[in-house]
Amino acid sequence: MFSGSIVALVTPMHADDAVDFDAIDRLVEFHVDNGTDGIVAVGTTGESATLDIEEHIAVVTRIVAKAAKRLKVIAGTGANSTSEAIHWTKLAKDVGVDACLLVTPYYNKPTQEGLYRHFRAIAEAVDIPLLLYNVPARTACDMKPETVARLAEIRNIVGIKEASGSMERNRELLDLLGDRFCLLSGDDQIAVESTIAGFRGVISVSANIAPRQVRAAIAAALEGQVDTARSLNETLKPLHRALFVESNPIPIKWALARLGLIGDGIRLPLTPLSEQYHAQVLEAVQAAGIGLA
User: Fold this and answer.
1) CA–CA separation, 240 vs 238, rounded Å?
2) What is the dihedral of CA 135, 138, 144, 148, to 10 degrees?
3) Residue 109 a catalytic site member
4) Neighbours of 33 (CB within 10 A)
5) Cα separation values, 1 from 76, 252, 254, 258, 288, Å
6) Which of 249, 252, 241, 246 is nearest to 210 (CA)?
7) All domains in the chain, ordered by first residue
8) Which of 93, 116, 133, 253 is catalytic?
9) Residues 6+ apart with CB under 8 A from 53
């Protein structure tokens, strides 16, 4: 159901912190024009932590409308409260998303059994395709492959964005689940190698600014063109690194603003990219074949 290059879209904002819906339209059109296979709306990169519920649903609604079925739209609806995650997932389903992305509960550090029951409860409450999202560096919660395998038995839990950054972990998931579950890399730096190994693609930060390049590398990997995929990825490696010199989405929003696709707005407690990193990010973007103003 989901494969290829799926962008973890930023949420553009004005200088006063208000969401810039005109810029959302530009970004969606930019990704349609450049062949992106799908959009994750209001995930970590979309600053979900600082959008209120009205903004959250308004952004998802706008992306669904602008995408107009030309690419898949996946809404980030995870929370560390099960009842809240169910509520957000219901709202996203109502506005027409293709699936929802559910991050592991953060801060309260559930057990593996707690994770299983959390996601099972959401799946039972909302009949829509669900993708799990494991990103322990952000959440202090690591969902083990055995738990993922249990959840894969639930009909509408269809895949996972695995962002542990470990090829060893990704191989464990492949060994347990093979091609019966949609395995997507959540780490740009190992996305091509993960896809060569058997993953179905990536949910990508780098695709925000290099959609054509990321899609080409992932498409080659999916087609078994290993040398081509690795060669294309070599030009992207500096970008993958540079976009995490400070917390995501700080560097990618700065780069997109230089491209003229969005303004410089970003919400506290995140701050604009530190000047000491400007040259590094600029050089990495240019090395990927993208010209910035």
Assistant:
1) 6
2) -40
3) no
4) 11
5) 17, 27, 32, 34, 29
6) 252
7) 4-233 (3.20.20.70)
8) 133
9) 88, 91
What tens digit of pLDDT does each residue of 94-104 get?
999 999 999 99
Let me know if 161 is a catalytic residue: yes
* Cα-based angle 151, 115, 129 (whole degrees, multiple of 5): 45
Whether the model pTM is above 0.90? yes
Residue 1: pLDDT band (50, 70, 90) is confident
Give the Cα separation of 173 and 170 in Å (integer).
5
Residue in 42, 45, 37, 28 with CA at minimum distance from that of residue 5: 37
DSSP string, the chain: ---EEEEE----B-TTS-B-HHHHHHHHHHHHHTT--EEEESSTTTTGGG--HHHHHHHHHHHHHHHTTSSEEEEE---SSHHHHHHHHHHHHHTT-SEEEEEPPPSS---HHHHHHHHHHHHHH--S-EEEEE-HHHHS----HHHHHHHTTSTTEEEEEE-S--HHHHHHHHHHHTTSSEEEES-GGGHHHHHHHT--EEEESGGGT-HHHHHHHHHHHHTT-HHHHHHHHHTTHHHHHHTTSSSTTHHHHHHHHHHTSS-S---TTS-PPPGGGHHHHHHHHHHTT----
Apex CA 213: angle with CA 212 and CA 219, to 5°? Answer: 85
The catalytic residue among 66, 72, 93, 161 is 161
Q: What is the pLDDT of residues 10-49, one digit of tens each?
A: 999 999 999 999 999 999 999 999 999 999 999 999 999 9
User: In angstroms, rounded to a whole number, what is the distance separating the alpha carbons of residues 268 and 270?
Assistant: 4
Q: Write the CA distances from 73 to 9, 51, 91, 92, 93, integer angstroms.
A: 10, 18, 14, 10, 11
- Tokens 């780098």 locate to 206
Q: Provide the residue count of the chain.
A: 293
